[in-house]
Fold this protein.
Amino acid sequence: NDFEELGGLLLASGEEPGYRPVGPVKTDTDYAGIAAEDNLSADVLHDAGFVGLVSRELNGRAGVGVTSIVLFRSAQGAATYAGALNTGLEANLAGAGPRRFDVPDVPGAFGYTATFDGQHVGNVVWVEGSCVLTVGNQSDGALPPALNTGAQRWHDRMNGMCPVPGITGSP
């Protein structure tokens, strides 16, 4: 599937305070590798109908980050993957001390912070249509307000439509 056009839907400049997209849009269709990064069984992504991932780095005054979209063949597949990430969060990130935070303006979203090798990170994850969206930052610890604002603005722009009609990788 040609899903590279989803790169144009990633978090845009001005949506997350203090961060902006930089560099090229990257794509990945290796569901087993993505599952391993998420500490999930590869079967979770395969069975959910994984199509591919598009991502782009973010740069900000407080650190770096990433914006990504994982495309599935159906909204149910996206919900299954996001649910596996959410329910397995504490177990999968046990060594990183995950702490959840509320994301009040994005329905179904979950946010968390963790510490990897002394680096503070935060992510907000949610489902839009048949996609799982993530915005994440590595920063000084003041993460949830900027992440919540970025997630809310991105969610408002997406309006539940992912992928948008006309994208060639649409399920």
Summary: The longest helix spans residues 144-158.
